[in-house]
Amino acid sequence: MTDRNQRARRVVLLLTLVRIVAAPVVMAVVLVAPVGSPAVTAAAVGFGAAALTDFLDGRLARRWNVTTTLGTFLDTTADKLLVAGVLIALVAVGRTSAWIAAIIIGRELVILALRGLVASEGVVVRPSVWGKLKANLQFVAILLAIARLPVHVGPLYLDEWAMLAAAVVTVVSAVHYLVLFSAAFGDKADASGGAV
Prior knowledge:
By secondary structure, the chain is mainly alpha-helical. The chain has helices spanning 3-32, 38-63, 69-92, 98-120, 129-147, 158-186, and strands at 152-153, 156-157.
């Protein structure tokens, strides 16, 4: 491996680690700092920056051709830690509902388990548009819930509407992936995932 490839891998890994480190830091601030405080504003900015690394590390890994199995695992793990961790903190301080958090976290656990199951059969299920839309909506909704801007749309805060939208798309994404997984199991001979 060339020095350039090693440097590229380190940059991609660093971006992924930003999300892993950001999760407990943002959680701590959400749990102890009042809405509207400078600390919460900083946490919202930090969460937004961490969410952007999700887009950057995958894009750079593909551009520099340094994708690895470990990198893909860490990337997925970092996303789940950031989303699940901050959601739990938001539930604890009453800025989102437990049932929305259960839908989002439950979906991630189910799809993660199913991905591992189909991978053991030699089948690859590619990320879908619904999965990417789900991730982006979740990041936006969580960012808004951290900040909790004093903006009402009807009976709910803006972030509560965003969280509801994220929950709906999360369910649609789960159904979509379940259909893909069933198709993958139906044609195990195609290990490339082309059947889905």
